[in-house]
Each structure stands twice: as structure tokens, then as C-alpha cells.
Amino acid sequence: MQHYFGYIKGKEAYIEEKDALRAKQVKRIQLNEQIEIAEGERVYLCRCRRLHPLSFEVIAEITDTREPPLKLNLAFALLKGDHNELIVLKGTELGVTRFLPFISARTVVLPKGKEDNKLQRLRKIAKEGAEQCRRSLIPEVSAYASFEEIAKNARGLKLFAYEEEAIQGQNILDYAIVGESEATLLIGPEGGFTPEEAALAIDNGFNPVSLGKRILRAETAAIAGAAALLLYSER
Questions:
Q1: How far apart are the C-alpha atoms of 220 and 83, rounded to whole Å?
Q2: Measured between alpha carbons, how far is residue 68 from residues 139, 144, 189, 232 in Å?
Q3: 3-state secondary structure of 195
Q4: Residue 166: which H helix or E strand, with range?
Q5: Distance CA 210, CA 164 (A)
Q6: Is 177 helix (H, G, I), strand (E, B) or coil?
Q7: What is the pLDDT of residues 97-145, one digit of tens each?
Q8: CA-to-CA distance for 99 and 123, rounded, in angstroms?
Q9: Counting Cβ atoms within 10 Å, is residue 235 exposed (0-12), middle (13-18) or buried (19+)?
């Protein structure tokens, strides 16, 4: 079933013009076809009642929740290539609520400003990923921040994947608590956190954790850590 984000007015539902164009030209939506439209974390079953202009009739609200009980903020250092896109796409599928891309001491490719075309691309990927896996909300992709801003403003249970913990064995699931409402998971760049960054994170209440006995690539660590916490929260 097709899934879109739009808005509801009484018994009528609408989607954005560019999404309507895609629904007609790419998805080949048909008159009377049923789809889902999400607004404000609520999802509605709707029926296409008119193609030109495209509009829908609300049939019923879908009451089963699509979002995990844990609101996970995934903070990750900007990476080279398309690895940032992979983190946002897979994180969206897993149920991440908010992405916090940041610049660390070992970030290789620096952005051109607080918001650039690559950031807009990440937001587009989050929206498309949320539609594909039929989520109730589109994850937020925040503007680029510094490591210090992330460390000082994090919310909820604070965890950071630290390669030194792979030896000591403080597993991420040792901190996973059923019923926890919010958490922030901090993932470093290709070269890992500097000792100064690790100390700053700890000073701001972050717990260093391991994602296993093997050293993972940064993008793998982001996906694996998010998967572990979100799956555990749904037990």
C-alpha cells in the first residue's frame, strides 16, 4: 500500500503537489485506490476520490503505532562519500526519531555551512525512507553542529560508542532499559573520537559503550547501535 505524509481536513486528505505528481506519474495511483496518509504521528486509511486535482477521502484512523517506544537521537560525525546517506536511510527504517550530524576533530570532509545541499539531500532521504517503511513521522535531520554542542545539549540516556570499550566489554545493551523514553547515541568519525572528545562526552554524562569485540566502521556502528537500542525497546 502506498504511504504518504500530508494533511487532513475533516473527512478529506491531501498530499504535497510534488508527491501528488509522483503518485500519478510514477506510482500510477487509480481512482478509489486505498493508501495511507500520515499527519502529526497519526496515520489514516484513505481512498482516492479524485485524480485531477488529486484528493482523498478519509476512511478511518489506523490505531496501531508505527513508532518505537524509545525516541532515539542518533548523533553521528560527518563521513566521506555517501555513508551519511546510508546512516539516515537505514536509521529511518529502524525507527530513529532525530539525526544529529556533527563536525568532530577528525572529520575529513567539512560542510560548506550550517545547511548545504548535502543536508537537504539527507532530509529528502529521511522523508522517502519514512514513506517506504510506512512510519508515522518523518525523522528530523538537524543542522550541522559542533561536537561540543552535541555533547552539551544531548537528551535522555546518553551513550557513545567508544572503541576502547570493545576491549573492556561494557556492552551497549547493559544500558538498554525497557521503558526508557529517550536516548542519544553518539557515533564518531572514521578515525574515532580523540581522547579530548571522549573526556568531554563523559564530563557531560555520556556512558562509553561497546558494540561488540570487533572495531566497526563508523556507518556500521551507527546502524548497529541504533538497531540494538530500538529493537530492545520494543520487547
A1: 9
A2: 12, 25, 27, 10
A3: helix
A4: helix 165-168
A5: 8
A6: coil
A7: 999 999 999 998 888 777 789 999 999 999 999 999 999 999 999 999 9
A8: 10
A9: exposed
Q: How many CB atoms lie within 10 A of CB 15?
A: 23
The Cβ of residue 164 has, within 10 Å, a number of other Cβ atoms equal to 13
- The fraction of the chain above a pLDDT of 70, given in percent, is 98
Please give the angle made by the CA atoms of 3, 140 and 67, to the nearest 5 degrees: 55
DSSP tag of 173: G
d(CA 79, CA 85): 10
- Give the pairing of strands 54-62 and 42-51: antiparallel
For residue 152, the SS3 value is helix
> Nearest-CA neighbor of 185 among 231, 230, 137, 125?
230
What pLDDT score does 115 carry?
77
CA angle (216 as vertex; 213, 221 as ends), nearest 5:
105
**pLDDT by residue (tens digit) across 139-187?**
999 999 999 999 999 999 999 998 776 566 688 988 877 778 999 999 9
With cell 576533530, the residue in question is: 105
- Phi/psi for 113 (5° steps) reads 175, -175
**pTM of this structure:** 0.91
148's grid cell: 561540543
pLDDT in tens, 210-228: 998 888 999 999 999 999 9
CA dist 165 and 163 (Å) reads 5
